[in-house]
């Protein structure tokens, strides 16, 4: 499984990376612009991300905008709906309008409230049907 972790907070992205690195090939982006660049390049190289863990609140390009761009790139490059990346929004906002908009306007797949706990993360990934490979929780 290939994962893109997008968060401007070093601690948050490091925690998610540490949880996922035993079961996934992880890349990191610190803002929405980097995320879009990495996402497009991965698709063009035929090595798409299965999962994007995306913070909503970031400087420069926020997670809402990045999510819309990710979905637009998938449409532009002809990715079928069943092959779209799973996007798990990671946010400190519990049940806020930003989270609502990420689902209904942006195409997010799920969301987790920070701080992210490993059990909740792995449970969510399993419910999304992502292959966590050998050694997963």
Give a concise summary.
The protein is of the alpha/beta class and 137 residues long.
CATH class: Alpha Beta
End-to-end separation in angstroms reads 15 Å
| Average pLDDT number | 89
- What percent of residues adopt helix (DSSP H or I)? 40-55%
| Strand tally | 5
CATH architecture descriptor:
3-Layer(aba) Sandwich
Unreliable stretches (pLDDT < 50, length at least 5) are none
Classified in CATH, the superfamily is Response regulator
Number of helices: 5
Overall tally of domains: 1
Main sheet: strands, sense, barrel: 5 strands, parallel
Instruction: Please indicate the percent range of residues in DSSP E strands (runs of 2 or more).
Output: 15-25%
Q: Which strands sit side by side, in order, in the main sheet?
A: 2-1-3-4-5
What is the general shape? globular
CATH-assigned fold name: Rossmann fold
Secondary-structure element order, N to C:
EHEHEHEHEH
- Gyration radius, to the nearest Å? 14 Å
Structural class designation: alpha/beta
What does this structure look like?
By secondary structure, this protein is an alpha/beta fold. The chain is 41% helix and 18% strand. The protein has five helices and five strands; from the N terminus they run E-H-E-H-E-H-E-H-E-H. A five-stranded parallel sheet has the order 2-1-3-4-5, with helices on both faces. Helix 2 (32-44) runs parallel beside helix 3. The longest helix is centred in the middle third of the chain and has 14 residues, at 63-76. The mean pLDDT is 89.
Keywords for this entry:
137 residues, alpha/beta, Rossmann fold, five-stranded parallel beta sheet
């Amino acid at each position: 499984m290939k994962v893109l972790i997008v968060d401007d907070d070093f601690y948050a992205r490091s925690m998610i990376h540490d949880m996922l690195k035993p079961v996934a090939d992880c890349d990191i982006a610190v803002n929405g612009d980097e995320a879009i660049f990495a996402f497009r390049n991965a698709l063009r190289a035929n090595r798409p991300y299965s999962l994007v863990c995306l913070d909503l609140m970031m400087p420069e390009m926020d997670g809402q905008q990045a999510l819309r761009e990710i979905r637009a790139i998938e449409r532009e490059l002809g990715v079928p709906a069943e092959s779209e990346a799973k996007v798990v929004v990671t946010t400190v906002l519990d049940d806020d309008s930003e989270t609502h908009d990420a689902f209904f306007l942006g195409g997010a797949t799920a969301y987790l409230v920070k701080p992210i706990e490993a059990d909740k993360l792995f449970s969510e990934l399993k419910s999304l049907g992502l292959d966590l490979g050998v050694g997963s929780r």
